[in-house]
Structures are given as C-alpha cells and as structure tokens.
Amino acid sequence: MEPNPHILKHHHITLNVGVAQDDYDFHTKILGLKSVKKTALYDGDEPIYHLYYGNDFGEESTLITCFPMRQSGRKATRGTGQIKTLALSVPASSLSFWERHLRQHGHDVKRSERFGEALLSLAHPCGIQYELVAIDDDDRMPYSNGIIPAEFGIRGTHGITVSVRDLEMSDEFMQVGWSGKNRRTDGAFTRYEVGAGGTGTIIEFEHEPDVPQGSWAYGEGVTHHCAFQVADLDVQKNVKFRLEGLGYTDTSDRKDRGYFDSVYVRTPGGALFEATVSKPQGFLVDEPYERLGSELQIPPVFQSRKDSIKSHLEPLLY
Fold first, then answer.
1. What is the CATH number of domain 9-312?
2. What's the whole-model pTM score?
3. Higher pLDDT residue, 122 or 305?
4. Are 155 and 144 in contact (CB under 8 A)?
C-alpha cells in the first residue's frame, strides 16, 4: 500500500512542563520566541495554562505549546514510548552565537552532529531535551523582539525524536500510515520526512530497547504530543479512516481546540501524534494581531468559570 500522502509538516508540539513562569521566560527571553496565545487546557475540569510560542503570527511548524503542570502536582516518568527531544531550526551561521548565549544564561550545552547536521543540545527548565540544529536553507520568518538578532532567530521546528524499544512496528506505521519517506539511519536513529521533506517535517526514532516505558498521562517533565498539518477537514477525516482501516484504532474523534481541529492517534511505539487543521482565522479568532498573546483567553467551555479560573491559575508575569 502506498504511504498516506496527506501529512504535510509539523503543526505544533506540546509539552508538559513545570512552573509557568520558568516556561514563559525560557521560551520568550532565552529562545526569543513570541508569546502567541495564553489560554487554558481544554481537557478535564482542572484549569491549567496552555501557553503558545512561535513566530509573529504563530504559523504552522513554528509553534511550541506548553501545559505548566507544577500547579497540579502531577509528575511524569520519562522513558521509551515518548517523544524525547524537540529540535528547532536555526541558521548555520548562528550556532556559535547560540552556544555563547545559552551558556551565559546558565544552560549546559553540548555540540554534536547527527545525519550530517551540526546541533546544540540543551534542556528546558523541566528537563525536556531540546536541540538547535544548523540549517542553511530555511526560509521561515523568525520572530524578533530585540533579544535575539533576527538573523540568528529560531525559524521553527526541525524535527522530533521518539524513543522506542522496538522499531519494526513504528517503521511500518511511518511508511504506510503517516507519509514517512526518505528513510535513513545514523547509529540508533532512524529518520523519516513527511510532505515535501526538509526541516519542519522530520520524525526520528531512537532505538532504546533497554529503556523502561515512560508515562503517557499529563504530568510535568515529558512531551505530550506532536501535531502535523493536513490540508482541510475532509483530508483529516480521510486520514482518520485510513489509520483505522490499517488497524490503528486508537484514533480519536475530531476535537475542536479553538484555534484548530485535531484528531489524535497513539502510534505503535507509544508516542501520540495529531492530524491538525488550522481554523481560517487562526490565533486571531479571539484577539487582534496587535494584542496577540498579550492576555489570557478563556476557552468557551470554561466561560462560566472565567473569574474563578483566572484566580486559580498561578501568577504569570509578562
């Protein structure tokens, strides 16, 4: 069977982080991303922030979104069956700048290379692993508020790394169910690209047969899921039907997330993927561009509790 042709590129990646202020400062002050949206987690009845960071308009494949879980007291267990690393694209000429900048702000940084790409490894304050990967041909426009020079700014996502105990089932899923192509290996890593390929489309699997299973529930310290853009709701429906027809029946119904519509699938290796369609107005649906990301937006499902939610959420200075 031919690969599913409809998975285009990353849309966003969502992390379960720790303290809201630590997360906000890391993404906006250290990495220099824009606060695109401040809202709340839609699932469950306990209000938790949902913070979005990206480029100026929060375009697809530039977005990192975070659930600060410290307030809930819920901790996660890192392990296999999870997305373990988020890689971001930066200009190749900027790598020395980023190394100095990160060290000056107290981050341990390690230089290495994978698949012929130079990269810097660092950690989010909650411990989730990040990489800044040197890319020469990324034309996505970075956000610049003066903290990071525009010519050195983060362009968007580059790839994700999924830890798996067994690669065979993930390989089948990627090649048949999720548009994976250009399969390559580098030691324990197997890389695929979706859509047109290149930065912003990459999924890597790291074979770690001796690593214990990690947790999947909401909890501080692990990645929750990676979302991938599909063209429209009809395509999204067809992606869901195709996955179910292949036997990947741990696939959700469509969920309205306010700024996009989502269908989730639990992949054979354990990581949660999402097929996503942006709303026509995107993040401008509830605030104008001039104030994008500046105020807390309460999801419609919580509007009746707006005041109590605002008082419950941990303070956030921005």
1. 3.10.180.10
2. 0.96
3. 122
4. no
